[in-house]
Amino acid sequence: xxxxxxxxxxxxxxxxxxxxxxxxxxxxxxxxxxxxxxxxxxxxxxx
Length: 47
What we know:
By secondary structure, the protein is mostly helical.
């Protein structure tokens, strides 16, 4: 059985991993958005 210290460590680890994954996802999403906006700007100027 888990005592409260082990449960807190597990919860903190899960919360930390979730926040890191959210940070990576947000970074990738914003990079993709920036790339698509740059391509739209390029297409607008090249017409």
